[in-house]
Amino acid sequence: MSSKMRRKSKTSELPEWAVQITALRERFGINQAELARRVSCSAMTISRWERGLLQPSAEHFIQLGNLGNKTQAWFFWEMAGIQPAKMAGALSTPSNARRSAELLEKGNDRGGSAGSNKKIRTVSVPLLKAFIGAHDQPGDKRSLRTIPAADAISVPVRWCPNPDYTSLVPVKGHAMEPLIRDGDIVAVDSFQTERQNLYGQVVVAASPTQGLSLAYLRRYDTVDVLEAENRRCDPVILNKSDNWRIVGKVLWWIATTSN
After folding, report:
1. Contacts within 8 Å (CB) and 24+ apart, 235-241
2. How many domains does the chain have?
3. What's the pLDDT at 38?
């Protein structure tokens, strides 16, 4: 048997989601470490996904869908329990977000079996009348806890470790692209604010001058830094004089457009 035939045989034995993850990564022309960085996991996890040894969580399926083109996005979102047939146009603007509630209400306990009719427990998460700036874009200067809600969306309870502290906020700006795009809606957990637990994660920070800002929180030696996905954007060094504070961790996000 030729090596080409062996590769084809091996691929045919893999779950479809494993094949699609490899196809997504190859479409971007990136290695497993870079894909891991984009979806906030380890390169070893990506390797296990692509070999069919570990199925991604619902949260990771959503992040993979956010990275994919239209066809890939719907495949991954369906694996997360979202009904892709209802996705088109549901999140074209924040005012339409209420219509996306039903997309998030179905799934199974593993969050990975498409077509399941089993309902899971949901919680109502407010969609705030505000926006978060993408690192170099000024955002709303109010506290997340004081901003009124424009609407509410029902999501599975397991997606929100602290539902009473979780809110949905649209993003404005391009500094976090292609990970998080202008107009996407992020879920922010304002209970998780301790820096030592958030290094390497996407967070929402705030300052009196910039307001709410979306960025990676990283630590270099003894210095805490906010960085954008777009490396052309200048990082922000966190110090007391600038009055920057971490106001929440980004749990997941929903893309409003397909690339």
Report:
1. 236/135, 236/205, 238/205
2. 1
3. 86
Side chain identity, residue 168: L
Tokens of 238: 């966190």
CA 238, CA 259: separation in Å to the nearest integer?
Answer: 33
Mean pLDDT of 8-12: 53
State the pLDDT confidence band at 82, using cuts at 50, 70 and 90.
low
In a domain, 178, yes or no: yes
Q: Per the structure block, which two tokens stand in for 177?
A: 């692209």
Provide the residue range defining the domain that includes 218.
56-254
Residue 27 lies in a domain: no
Task: Please tell me the pTM assigned to this model.
Answer: 0.61
CATH of the domain at 175: 2.10.109.10
Look at residue 106 and tell me if it is in a domain: yes
170: tokens are 């649209």
- For all residues of the chain together, what is the average pLDDT? 80
Q: What is the pLDDT of residue 45?
A: 95
